């Protein structure tokens, strides 16, 4: 398993705990860094290619309509949306190489998993005045918002909206979901599957300690979903339990 991060020291303990994990340094908004990590991965996987690429980078900035700036919006889009596409583009040769060695569709062959968010669903998130103040994040990658308002019963216990938490991240996952749809159609003939996956509201640096689940609780479900992926899931938007989410 190959894990990349911008600051290697943040995952050093993980690599010590699991000997099968190799850490690679990657800054997703740096073209040279992307090229470097692709070469490193190619040296490791060789002729077998890359079976599964998981795009999980993301940043968040809080800002209201009065506070938001073009620079902030562009910075968040660059990391949460554009960078995911550029990383995928760079790894396509290795994904195609893996796809040529097998049949069917899924992570056993070649797959791109874009980590999205429940908040990215325009059908589930109500047009509430409070949340209309959440600009950059909501336009790009919305599902990780702990204060997202759902049109149906909320799966997030103890959700408490915070008027000050105008989240710029929300805009980016929605855009990322469209990238997923485009890639799924574009790469289907290559046998490369692509989905968007909502991992759940988790206790991470971005999710915060109010989140109902720890990362360790979500991992078994996520791995089970990835293991079951096939052609019928290509281009879909799923959660960590394998349930289909509306766009």
From TrEMBL:
Family annotation (InterPro entries): Fungal_SecMetab_SDRs, NAD(P)-bd_dom_sf, SDR_fam
GO cellular component: cytoplasm
GO MF annotations in UniProt: oxidoreductase activity
Keyword terms, alphabetized: NADP, Oxidoreductase
Domain of life: Eukaryota
Family: Belongs to the short-chain dehydrogenases/reductases (SDR) family.
Name of this protein: C-factor-like
């Amino acid at each position: 398993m190959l894990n990349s991060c911008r600051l290697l020291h943040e995952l050093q303990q993980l690599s010590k705990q699991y000997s099968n994990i190799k850490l690679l340094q990657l800054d997703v908004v740096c073209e040279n860094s992307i090229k470097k990590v692709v070469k490193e991965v190619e040296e490791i996987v060789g002729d077998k290619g890359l079976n599964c690429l998981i795009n999980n980078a993301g940043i968040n900035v809080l800002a209201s309509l009065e506070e938001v700036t073009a620079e902030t919006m562009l910075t968040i889009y660059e990391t949460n949306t554009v960078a995911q596409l550029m990383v995928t583009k760079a790894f396509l040769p290795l994904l195609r190489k893996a796809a040529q060695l097998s049949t069917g569709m899924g992570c056993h062959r070649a797959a791109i998993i874009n980590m999205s968010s429940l908040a990215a669903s325009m059908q589930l998130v109500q047009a509430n005045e409070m949340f209309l103040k959440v600009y950059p994040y909501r336009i790009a990658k919305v599902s990780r918002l702990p204060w997202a308002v759902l049109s149906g019963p909320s799966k997030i216990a103890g959700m408490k909206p915070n008027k000050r938490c105008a989240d710029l991240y929300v805009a980016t996952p929605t855009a990322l979901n469209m990238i997923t749809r485009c890639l799924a159609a574009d790469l289907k003939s290559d046998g490369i599957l692509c989905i968007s996956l909502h991992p759940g509201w988790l206790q991470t640096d971005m999710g915060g300690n109010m989140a109902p689940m720890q990362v360790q609780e979500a991992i078994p479900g996520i791995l089970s979903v990835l293991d079951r992926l096939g052609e019928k899931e290509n281009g879909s938007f799923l959660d960590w339990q394998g349930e289909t989410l509306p766009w």
